[in-house]
Specification:
Elements lengths: L11 H10 L6 H9 L3 H10 L10 H22 L4 H24 L15 H10 L9 H15 L2 H21 L6 H24 L3 H7 L18 H7 L6 H11 L5 H14 L1 H5 L4 H26 L4 H7 L6
Helix pairs in contact: 1-15, 2-3, 4-15, 5-6, 5-7, 5-8, 5-15, 7-8, 8-9, 9-12, 9-13, 11-12, 12-13
Length: about 325
């Protein structure tokens, strides 16, 4: 095994490739053109002209399948060329834990989760299903197998799917932090994961307050490892002022202000959008970076945002939602 330290120079090729691709990425103007088109097929045609799969004539399920395939192909391609595969692993891991949660919840509800499992993770859904059904997680890599086994046992003992969810969420973010720590070329991945944790905890705090949950429940739901500490506030009810103070010097300042309103019954839509936009704002640092893991992470996050936006627009049009309703739901784009 080589002891050579990975540096930004090792990312020169992939950084240049991704920077060149940025020019073809979706921006707000392109999304606006899609929203202003004469219906679903015209919107899909505009998208196809930019190199996306041709989704004209597709159902919502067909749109989902084609977008999922685009994601899988992108992950596979970049994994072959990036110097540190963990940079792609940070994004794949989300789908491993999505699959784990779907399988565990399916067990609890007595239904099959196979139709909603993703192939974008690092572990095939068939392998996870087999491990779960056979109660043998030895060959599931990383912490995922142990987390699934623990969640399965917890669900069997308590019949509480939410508790199993919390367990898997904590395992997911802990493994994200571990992966980020293995990327030796840059401190940015770890900062990115801490930002994701801060956003997840902000959402959790607001939702718990809206539902009237007690401090013990909130403590059990919060994810450790972020940059914002709830150690004091979570001992009692988190007030609007405390929430705003916790996030005052973070990218989530505006989201926390909207969250404080949402805790008292205000709308959640603007708050949720502000949380996502705060992460996108943080990723602007990746956009400005010339080289390195930052470029890969920024690009992959942008592609994920674009896939989410395209799915929202196309499936929304298929469902008969108005362009104005869809505009209100769209997040800020990367470019």
């Amino acid at each position: 095994m080589s002891d050579k330290k990975i540096t930004d120079r090792d990312y020169l090729f992939v950084s240049a490739m991704l920077k060149a691709r940025e020019a073809a990425m979706l921006d707000r103007d392109k999304l606006e053109q899609m929203l202003s088109a004469a219906g679903f097929d015209e919107s899909a045609k505009l998208l196809a002209e930019g190199g996306w799969p041709d989704m004209t004539g597709q159902s919502s399920a067909g749109v989902d399948a084609l977008l999922s395939r685009r994601r899988e192909e992108l992950f596979n391609e970049l994994e072959r060329v990036v110097p540190e595969k963990q940079t792609v692993g940070l994004f794949r891991l989300k789908y491993d834990y999505h699959n784990a949660k779907a399988i565990v919840k399916g067990e609890g509800a007595g239904v099959s989760a196979e139709h909603i499992l993703s192939r974008a993770g690092q572990v095939s859904p068939e392998k996870l299903l087999s491990a779960f059904q056979e109660d043998d997680f030895r060959f599931v890599p990383g912490a995922l197998g142990g987390a699934m086994a623990e969640a399965k046992g917890l669900l069997a003992r308590t019949d509480n799917p939410q508790a199993a969810d919390f367990l898997l969420d904590k395992a997911y973010f802990a493994e994200l932090l571990r992966l980020a720590g293995e990327i030796e070329s840059s401190a940015f991945p770890a900062a990115y994961v801490r930002t994701l944790i801060d956003g997840a905890n902000l959402r959790t705090c607001v939702r718990c307050q809206r539902m009237g949950k007690d401090p013990e429940f909130l403590q059990g739901a919060l994810i450790p490892g972020g940059g914002v500490s709830y150690a004091q506030a979570a001992r009692g009810t988190v007030t609007q002022e405390e929430l705003a103070g916790l996030y005052e010097s973070t990218p989530f300042r505006q989201a926390a202000a909207l969250g404080a309103e949402a805790m008292e019954g205000g709308p959640m839509t603007e708050f949720e959008r502000a949380c996502d936009n705060a992460v996108n704002s943080f990723l602007d640092a990746a956009r400005r970076s010339g080289f390195g893991a930052e470029v890969v992470i920024g690009y992959l996050a942008a592609e994920e945002n674009n896939i989410t936006a395209v799915r929202m627009v196309l499936t929304g049009l298929l469902s008969g939602l108005s362009p104005q309703r869809l505009r209100e739901r769209l997040r800020d784009t990367y470019v």
